[in-house]
Amino acid sequence: MIRKVIQSNPTTLVVTLPKKWTVKHNIHKGDEINILEDGNGNLILGSDSMPKPKTINITFQSSQKQYVQGIIRNLYMNGYDEIHCKYHGEEDIIYITSILHYLIGFEIVDQNNDGCTIKIINQEKKEEYVSFLRKCFHNINYMGSILQESLNNKPSQLTQQKIEDLSWNVTKFSSYCRRIIIKFGLTQDYKYSVDYLLLTFLHMISHNFLYAYDFLLQRNLHPSVQNKKYIKEVIDSFQLLSELYYNKEVDVGALQTQVKELIEDRKLMQNNKSAPFIKYFSEIARIINPLITKIHARYLL
């Protein structure tokens, strides 16, 4: 990396610091940085406090499960390294412990009757990003294949558990990838900004597969041939979206047309008794639609 030397005053020369580097190491105006010289005359930047842990104190305003877990997960994805929590109710610790299973590197390091401290134990690694993103696609495609096969059989708790486990895997992997994007200051790169949106939507898609099968199991539904065809086309569309991300040879126009037709087909099923079940797949098609253009544009840069 080359930086231009600037004349600040008659006796001082200045070199600016790269934005991505300052974000990654949490450097701000007024911070002190050590400049060391090695045996070859090279200058090395360093700081006694780098990397600075990103910490926050929070007081829960509710003991509702989704509220407690949502706060912890969002702070994790936004790059916080240490969270000091004050409970609203005694059940808060149960919800916190449960969500930590899906936040890679986060652990409770201290707790008492009033609260706890959560800390990152294993620092995220940028080089793991690609493999964890691929795991998200793989898990969702596998969920789709399991669900499609199950439509010809009686819904079962075993299949529901398989789909739920895969969905939580997507939550874990997508959260970790989003944390990496934030921690390494990658949001200014268009490709990573698209990825951040993609990861959010992958999380939503996996949950729609899970909710769909839960509904199927609870109502003991037997989808019609028309509904099975619709579900297969949605699952196939996601498979093509996965291929588009890794392979530019996918016919983008044909995929867009196919997904738009799926969204419109939803209207034909409004009066069908399976409509509440089909709506989960219609929502997946709706989520896929904007991603096609964004992923395609990602390759044009």
Describe the overall structure.
- This protein is an alpha+beta fold.
- It is built from nine helices and eight strands.
- The radius of gyration is 24 Å and the shape is flat.
Compose a concise summary of this entry.
The chain has 301 residues and is α+β, with helices and mostly antiparallel strands. It has helices at residues 19-24, 65-77, 92-100, 129-150, 157-183, 190-219, 225-246, 252-265, 275-298; strands spanning 5-9, 12-15, 34-37, 43-46, 55-59, 82-86, 106-111, 115-120.
Layout of strands and helices, then pairs:
Blueprint: E1 5-9, E2 12-15, H1 19-24, E3 34-37, E4 43-46, E5 55-59, H2 65-77, E6 82-86, H3 92-100, E7 106-111, E8 115-120, H4 129-150, H5 157-183, H6 190-219, H7 225-246, H8 252-265, H9 275-298
Parallel strand pairs: 5-6
Antiparallel strand pairs: 1-2, 3-4, 6-8, 7-8
Helix pairs in contact: 2-3, 4-5, 4-6, 4-7, 5-6, 6-9, 7-8, 7-9, 8-9
